[in-house]
Each structure stands twice: as structure tokens, then as C-alpha cells.
Design goal:
By secondary structure, the chain is of the alpha+beta class. It is about 45% helix and about 20% strand. It has one domain. The longest helix is centred in the C-terminal third of the chain and has 26 residues, at about 115-140.
Length: about 170
């Protein structure tokens, strides 16, 4: 679910996510491919991200991501885990992209096992396109609440997809 890493060095080292916690309470068992994508997204996100909650003086932040009652919850805390604020978004605008993304990822993982390199490449291009669409939607939905860089949005979208598997 993640692609080649690109650099997005944070201009302000306080405006970043230093740790991330996914609500794993009801997550169904994940495939090895999805678990790998989760680990890569978290690693890449923590290595290089831009995350600036509106009106905040800075972090770094501990981000707790969860899904509650069809809503995506960004529970933002400081490094000491003290509450800093919450941003709650409806998941409804994300449903189609997440569904399509899961379908194309399944095709991609299947193709890796037996398809020609050109077929794998064309499926991967579609997968990356949907990933970018999800990241752009996330950026737009967070506008005015949290400023995030494109690569940060892509990695967060991956994690939202992983969380979405729980219901």
C-alpha cells in the first residue's frame, strides 16, 4: 500500500508525528501483505512527516488513530501522552476509495505471484493512482484542521485502510 519513499523534510521539527498508535481493539486478522504494508507505512511515517494541527504551537505529537461509529478519530497528544486535541472525520467520503483500493491491492498481490511484469506494472499504476486519490481526499478533509504533506497523507491513508478492515 505504500510506494517508493520520497523526502518531505519537515521545516519545523516540532510539527511532526513522533509516535503513532492504531486502535487494534477489534481489528480482524490481517494477511501478511497487509501487515507488512502497515509496518512499512508506520516506519516511513515516523521517519519523515509533516503534521501541523491548526493553532498548535508544536509537538512533536503522539497520534492515536481509531474508527468509532463510522468516524475516523485523530486523537492528538503530546509526547508525554497528554491530550492535545481531537479531529473527527466522517468515513463516508472515503468508503468508495477504500473499497476500490482493497480490490486493486488484492489483484496486485495475486498478480505478483503469477502475472507478467507488464500486467503487474499496470495494476500497480492503478493502485498508486487510488492511493494518491485517497491521500488528496484526506488532505482536503483535514484542511483547516491539520496541515499535512502529501507523503504524510499517503502513509496515513494506508493506516486508515488498515483500520477500516476491522468492521
Amino acid at each position: 500500500m505504500t510506494d517508493e519513499p520520497t523526502s518531505e523534510r519537515t521545516p519545523d521539527p516540532k510539527m511532526r508525528i513522533a509516535s503513532i498508535v492504531l486502535d487494534e481493539a477489534s481489528v480482524v486478522r490481517r494477511t501478511p501483505e497487509i501487515e507488512h504494508e502497515r509496518k512499512v507505512a508506520i516506519f516511513d511515517l515516523l521517519e519523515d512527516n509533516t503534521f501541523a494541527p491548526n493553532g498548535s504551537e508544536g509537538g512533536p505529537y503522539s497520534l492515536h488513530l481509531s474508527i468509532e461509529e463510522n468516524r475516523l478519530v485523530f486523537d492528538i497528544r503530546n509526547e508525554a501522552e497528554d491530550p492535545h486535541g481531537k479531529v473527527i472525520l466522517s468515513l463516508t467520503p472515503f468508503r468508495r476509495i477504500i473499497k476500490d483500493y482493497f480490490l486493486i491491492c488484492e489483484s496486485y498481490y495475486e498478480a505478483i505471484r503469477s502475472a507478467s511484469p507488464s500486467k503487474i506494472e499496470s495494476i500497480d499504476m492503478g493502485r498508486r493512482g487510488l492511493h494518491n486519490e485517497g491521500a488528496e481526499l484526506l488532505t482536503a478533509r483535514l484542511a483547516g484542521k491539520i496541515a499535512i504533506a502529501h507523503d504524510t497523507a499517503r502513509r496515513l491513508f494506508t493506516l486508515i485502510c488498515v483500520l477500516h478492515m476491522k468492521g
